[in-house]
Each structure stands twice: as structure tokens, then as C-alpha cells.
Amino acid sequence: MAADGADPHAERPVDEAARADGGGDALLEVEGLTTVFHTDKETIRAVDDVSFSVEEGETLGIVGESGSGKSVTARSILGLIDSPGVIESGSIRFRGDELTGDNWDTHRGDISIVFQDPSNSLNPVYTVGNQIRETLRIHQGIRGQEAREEAVRLLESVGIPDARRRVTEYPHQFSGGMRQRAVIAVALACDPDLLVCDEPTTALDVTIQAQILELLDDLQDEEDLAIVFITHDMGVIEETADRVNVMYAGEMVESAPVGELFDRPQHPYTRGLLASIPGRTVSGDRLPTIGGEVPTPTAEATDCRFADRCPEAFDACERVHPEPIRVGPDHTAACLLHEEGYEHDLDAGDLRGEGTTDGDADAVADGGDRA
Amino acid sequence: MSRNDAATESGTANESEASRPSRAAADSDDSTVTADDPLVEVRDLKKYYDDDGFLGDDPVKAVDGVSLDIRRGETLGLVGESGCGKTTLGRTILGLEDATGGEVVSDGRNVARLSGKQLREWQRDAQMVFQDPEASLNDRMTVGEIVREPLDAHDWETASERRRRVFELLDLVGLNEEHYYRYPHQFSGGQRQRVGIARALALEPEFIVLDEPVSALDVSVQARVINLLEDLQEELGLTYLFIAHDLSVVRHIADRVAVMYLGDIVELGDTETVYSDPAHPYTLSLLSAIPGSHTGTDRDRVTLRGTPPSPRDPPQGCRFATRCPAKVRPAEFDDLSGTAWERIDALHTVLRERAHTETGLTERLKRRLGLAADASDIDEVVADLFERDSDVAAADGSARSDLLTESARSAVEDAVQFARRGEDEEATAVLREAFGSVCNRERPERHAVGDDGRVSACVRHTDEYEDPRSVVDRRFGDD
């Protein structure tokens, strides 16, 4: 709590008031987070000036295509960025305590992470029980018989039947869904307040995915967990998240409560993302697409990074970097369309269908220009 | 054998009768599509993998008696959970795997028995696009060489003609000439998948098996590849077998869809009717699991418990019986609650899994010597399921008698007796005997559903039983 004395709010940019609800007693506050990777050739700004907060018991969804910086954001929160990556600037506060600058240990165990591929997150040569007990010993100092009982209880709590037998088995004896449950049990063994889930259901079948989402929901209710849920699947986001951050090329381009985002997406990228999901359009119609691919951000942005794929871009988009601004209650978007003082057609938002068709015409051609 | 014949017959009969009107509309704008003109006929196809282990294990029945027609010019979607045999079915149809039984007929040729010149011909006519563009392109060959390889292999025309053909193909899939000299690692995922598609098109095939072609791609890239596939189909009159686990993609691209579970097709019909009004309980639960609100099904989610059983030892009777939300229950247990059935099913699954765990040699030895402490475990499982229930725990320990009726409890206790002695196989049998029904005894036949040629393999489509939909709604609608 001492860190509070340093007044973390001092550095807040003025426009921060717009995205505002984050202040006060948020569990996790991320501000201006910039994580970069230095390579011989260039510096990649994987996460670029991202700010958000997570309240107690809330689920924050982070959505975006691959390369948008979702996973690096997750790893940054846990301090899992290794060389050549480094958190260049920004602050990550948990319960008010600053974590950046090697203070991760102050809250180690309060934040836990579940990775995408359950087969890679478990050690094949130890039993599942062994791996849960290891976490219990390190984070809670529970040992011996007590740890054994607790491991069985944890496996039961994540819905693994016959837990007492299963606890003695090795990961390969578990099916994919069971393995992910076991990974969640390991993550819960340190009794976290915040669970970061990095594409936890992407490797799983839709039926198993439904089971895991249900489980996370139950756990959240029981343990009052806050969850940061990272995925590229809009359907999953709609089902799990309370609020959603849309990421694009390292930046957060839109943030809104989940219902608001799906009903009134304000950023052209979000609109494109929602439109290109198959099944939302009448089958037989062509799928609307977004031309091009996510660029790799290597320098500080001086323009809108989405501009050259954007069906609604106008000339100012090439010159001005849009900041997140308030476009509705508790809803921000970083797009010049919503800023005053630029010459553009305010109705552009309604051109959605047309705009995406344009993008589509380029789509085949652009297959060529990006090797 | 007679069962399979019957199923096959009724399947084809229904398809031929009812499919005409629905296809007619599509025919008018695409002359390559003709109703009832199967390009590939699959009859009772089987593919077993036998590992010849010294322990003499049962073979893995990856594909077990599949019958379906793939019509000229259509896209047939094939969906199911991983491990259900989708990919093996696709590969066996192409002749990449030797069929254990049954046949694949195309243009009067039995593909499974082809050799020599005829086999080469079939290999030109039928191609495959693989799931992972990372793994299916050789990193040490240029894109030009990769796309040219099938032409070289089949001695197609002259060298310069081949080269020209490759440029043509690259153009067709939206790449351009300069890409000829590049290597796969210089391409993005979507572009790599385009290269895979160009390679598959090289020999002008009629039929392409697309095995999860867009699963590894981001949604915006995925949309472009799907559009490309649809364009190519229209332009070249291709027939697709589109294998995917992403149900939304299949809904978008497929004309008809086949739903596969544990080696067999459980439902087959026009995509829109299957999606908007699924007939088979498995299809129903599978579709209800799609996350998000855009799915078009406003039904309550039916969450399936557990994972599909091992194809090494599929359940007797209906394959889906172990997880089925609409399973026929014996009349004498009519008064058991939904929760009670759920617990009984859970116990059944635990015992089944115990009976089939692939245990290491030391574990087997321990059990042989009676060192494995099983007795206490099973009691704990039973206690968990039927006593320590958080909802009813408050009701001062009388919970147990509330949950199970007298006869149900005695059956459960019989099973537990066996399990205590480590005889899991017998314990499973006791439970199956007591709580099983027609679903556990007979493998269901295909029944025609609706009037558009849809078939679904579930006993509940006979007059004797209530319709699967209303059963599921009744059992799961209000909790």
C-alpha cells in the first residue's frame, strides 16, 4: 500500500478522464503500458501505450487478430516478458501497488495465468497431483497430507470426476478438456484474485469449450475471481466478458461494455471484425472482409495504424494519430471519425456494407503485396 | 451386415426422392450442378487402425460404416469433435489410407481397389488441401516448385507449359508472378494457404477434400480464403468435401452438412435445415455449444458432459448413448430427477473410464498384486455424487434418499460392490443393465426426417418414442 503514497495518478494524461471509470478501487490498473522487443534490425512495439483497469470480480475481454499484442499484454501483467522484450514505460498496479520495476514478487500468486495449449502447460513427467502440490507448497506453504487433500479438492472444484484417482495420473492420461481443467486447477492452487486466461479454449472442441467457459463462470461466482480473458473469437467474448478491449497493432482501439460493443461498434476495425465472422451473414452471400494484414508496429505511431486497411479512412488519418476518446457512456474509441475538427463525412459509419465490399475487391490483389 | 444395407438403402432412397426441389433453385444458375448426380458414393466405409501391439488391443475404429453421397458441384460440410474420424474419412475417400472395408465409388470406379493407370487418374481428379499451411508446404522449395510438383509428378505437358501453368495458378488464387521465386516462410498464413490451394488445383481436379483449410487463420484472413474457395468452385465447377470443427464456417460455405460422431454419420441434410432445426440429439447439443448470440439458435445450451469415448472401444448400441441428453430411460426409473440421472451417468462414466484406462505396466502389476488402493476411492466418488451435494447438503443428510429411489439405490450399490473389488468392467455392466435401454442395445438406423432428404440416426425418430427435441426441451428447458 506504500506505493499509493507516490500518487500513481500524477502521471495520468489529461484526456484520461474520458476513459475514466478505472480510477478508485480497481483491482488491476494498467496505464500507458508499452512493451517493446529489441531485435537487431528494429524495435517492435508489441504493446503500445495501452491503458485499462479490471474491477474485482469482473471479466475483461481482450480481443484482436494474431499479432495485435493480446498475449504480450497478458504476459506483461504477470511480468513474464523476457529479453529481448522489455516493458519500456507505463505502470501496472495491483491493489494500488506498482508491479513494474521488478516488484512482481509483492503480488506473486495473486495473479495467475492459463495458457492456450494445455498439453504444453503441464510437465509430462510429473503427475498432475504433483504439479498442483508444487504450486501449493510454493505459494501457500501447504505440504504433506494437507497438500494431497487440497490437490484432490482443487481437481474436484474444476469438475474432474474421480479426482482421487486422477490426481495420481500423468497429463497424457487426461483428455484435452481434462488437461485444461487440470491447468486451471494449478492456476487456482496459488489462490489468485486475478486469473489471466490467454486463449484458454482455442485448442479445444466447441463442446469442451462450452464446458470450460461454464467452469470459469462458476469459479468466478464462487471465488469472486477477476478474469482477463484473451481470445480472437468474438463469440466467446460475447459470452464471457463484462467489458471488451479491442486491440489492433499493439494499441487499444476500442473499449466498451460487451453489449454496447456488439450493438454499437464505433471503430471501423471492430465493425470489420464483427462483419467477417461467418454465420452472422446470410449464407450464400460473400463474407465481408478486411483487406491486408495487421502491420508490425516498429515506430511510435504518427498516423492511424489501421488507416491503410480502413474502408472509412480519409486524408487526416495518414497524418494524425488518434487517441481514445469518449464516444458513449463508458465507451471509448480511437478513431478520427469521432473527433471534431477533421473534414470527413460524418455518415461514413453507415457506409459499412459498401466500405467492406471495397476492401474485398482489394483482398485478392493484396494477397500479393505483402510477402 | 443387413442393418448396414438397410441404412444405406433408406439413406439413398430418401436423398434421391426429396432432394430435387431444394437443389433445383441452385441448378438454374450453375449448370455444373445436376440433382442426384453423385460424384463420389461412399458405402459402408470402414477404416480401422490396428497397432498389432503384443498386448493384443482392440483396433481403433476411426471410421466405422460410413455411407454418404457427395453430389457433383456441391460443398458437403463434415463436422464433429476432434477424434471423431473426420480427417480419416476424408483421407480414406481419397485413397490416402487403405480402407478396411466398404467402398468408395466414383465414375464407376471403386477407388479403394484402384491400381496403376486408373489410380493415377483418380489421384489427378481428387486433391486435398491440408489444415496447417505451416506444416504442409516444404520450406526448402520455392513456391513455384511446390505448385509445380504435382505437374512434374504426373508428367504434365512440357517444362515450359508447366511453368506457364504455375503462373496461371498463382494468379488464380490471388498471388502473383514474383511469388514464384519466394519461399513459404516469407508468406503469411493466409498466403500460404493460397499456395496450398494452388497446388491442389494444379491438375484440374473435380473433387477437393478441404481439411480444416481456414482453422489456423485469423477471422479477417479466413473470410478472404473462404471467398476465394467459393469463387474457385463457381469458376471451375469443383466439388468440395469441407471438413471443419468450426460450425459457423461450415454453415456459411456448405450446401449440405454431415455430422459425425465416433466414426459414424449421425445426421446428414441441407445445411440450413440442419442448423435451424437439428434432428439428432448430438447435432442439437453441438450446435447449442457455439458461443455468441449470432448463431441463429435461440435454444438453451445443452452442455455435453465429458469427452467422446475411445474409438478403440465404442459403446455398444448407440455411440452417443453415454453422453446423450435425450437418451431413452427405462420406464421403471421414470420418477428419478434430472439431477439423479446426471449423477448416475457421471458414475457410469467414471467406471467406464476406470475400466478402460491405459495403465502403465507397473500399475497393472500393482493391481495384479492387489496393491492398488481402489476401494476407498470409489466410495469417495459415490459420496461425492450422491451425498456431498452442495445444493442438498443443508437438508440434514437425508439428501441421499431424496436423490435416488429404493430400486435405483440398490442397483448403484451393486455396481459399487464390484468396483470396490476393482472389477470395473462388471460394475459398468451392472449399471448398464439396470439403467440402460434400447439406446444401449441397438445401433440406431437412419431415419428420414422432414421432407428434404435429411437423415438422422436416432431411435427417437420412430413413432414408438418421443421426438428428441421435445425430450431435450423438457429435460433441460427449465434448469
TrEMBL record, chain A:
<dbReference type="InterPro" id="IPR017871">
    <property type="entry name" value="ABC_transporter-like_CS"/>
</dbReference>
<dbReference type="GO" id="GO:0016887">
    <property type="term" value="F:ATP hydrolysis activity"/>
</dbReference>
<feature type="compositionally biased region" description="Basic and acidic residues">
    <location>
        <begin position="1"/>
        <end position="19"/>
    </location>
</feature>
<feature type="region of interest" description="Disordered">
    <location>
        <begin position="1"/>
        <end position="21"/>
    </location>
</feature>
<dbReference type="GO" id="GO:0005524">
    <property type="term" value="F:ATP binding"/>
</dbReference>
<feature type="domain" description="ABC transporter">
    <location>
        <begin position="28"/>
        <end position="274"/>
    </location>
</feature>
<keyword id="KW-0813">Transport</keyword>
<keyword id="KW-0472">Membrane</keyword>
<dbReference type="InterPro" id="IPR050388">
    <property type="entry name" value="ABC_Ni/Peptide_Import"/>
</dbReference>
<keyword id="KW-0067">ATP-binding</keyword>
<protein>
    <recommendedName>
        <fullName>Nickel import system ATP-binding protein NikD</fullName>
        <ecNumber>7.2.2.11</ecNumber>
    </recommendedName>
</protein>
<dbReference type="InterPro" id="IPR013563">
    <property type="entry name" value="Oligopep_ABC_C"/>
</dbReference>
<keyword id="KW-1003">Cell membrane</keyword>
<comment type="subunit">
    <text>The complex is composed of two ATP-binding proteins (NikD and NikE), two transmembrane proteins (NikB and NikC) and a solute-binding protein (NikA).</text>
</comment>
<keyword id="KW-0547">Nucleotide-binding</keyword>
<dbReference type="Pfam" id="PF00005">
    <property type="entry name" value="ABC_tran"/>
</dbReference>
<dbReference type="Pfam" id="PF08352">
    <property type="entry name" value="oligo_HPY"/>
</dbReference>
<keyword id="KW-1278">Translocase</keyword>
<dbReference type="GO" id="GO:0015413">
    <property type="term" value="F:ABC-type nickel transporter activity"/>
</dbReference>
<feature type="compositionally biased region" description="Basic and acidic residues">
    <location>
        <begin position="346"/>
        <end position="355"/>
    </location>
</feature>
<dbReference type="GO" id="GO:0005886">
    <property type="term" value="C:plasma membrane"/>
</dbReference>
<feature type="region of interest" description="Disordered">
    <location>
        <begin position="346"/>
        <end position="371"/>
    </location>
</feature>
UniProtKB/TrEMBL annotation, chain B:
<feature type="compositionally biased region" description="Polar residues">
    <location>
        <begin position="1"/>
        <end position="14"/>
    </location>
</feature>
<dbReference type="GO" id="GO:0016887">
    <property type="term" value="F:ATP hydrolysis activity"/>
</dbReference>
<dbReference type="InterPro" id="IPR003593">
    <property type="entry name" value="AAA+_ATPase"/>
</dbReference>
<dbReference type="GO" id="GO:0015833">
    <property type="term" value="P:peptide transport"/>
</dbReference>
<feature type="region of interest" description="Disordered">
    <location>
        <begin position="1"/>
        <end position="37"/>
    </location>
</feature>
<dbReference type="InterPro" id="IPR027417">
    <property type="entry name" value="P-loop_NTPase"/>
</dbReference>
<dbReference type="GO" id="GO:0055085">
    <property type="term" value="P:transmembrane transport"/>
</dbReference>
<dbReference type="InterPro" id="IPR003439">
    <property type="entry name" value="ABC_transporter-like_ATP-bd"/>
</dbReference>
<feature type="domain" description="ABC transporter">
    <location>
        <begin position="40"/>
        <end position="287"/>
    </location>
</feature>
<protein>
    <submittedName>
        <fullName>ATP-binding cassette domain-containing protein</fullName>
    </submittedName>
</protein>
<comment type="similarity">
    <text>Belongs to the ABC transporter superfamily.</text>
</comment>
<keyword id="KW-0547">Nucleotide-binding</keyword>
<keyword id="KW-0067">ATP-binding</keyword>
<dbReference type="Pfam" id="PF00005">
    <property type="entry name" value="ABC_tran"/>
</dbReference>
<dbReference type="GO" id="GO:0005524">
    <property type="term" value="F:ATP binding"/>
</dbReference>
<feature type="compositionally biased region" description="Low complexity">
    <location>
        <begin position="15"/>
        <end position="37"/>
    </location>
</feature>
<dbReference type="Pfam" id="PF08352">
    <property type="entry name" value="oligo_HPY"/>
</dbReference>
<keyword id="KW-0813">Transport</keyword>
<dbReference type="InterPro" id="IPR013563">
    <property type="entry name" value="Oligopep_ABC_C"/>
</dbReference>
<dbReference type="InterPro" id="IPR017871">
    <property type="entry name" value="ABC_transporter-like_CS"/>
</dbReference>
<dbReference type="InterPro" id="IPR050319">
    <property type="entry name" value="ABC_transp_ATP-bind"/>
</dbReference>
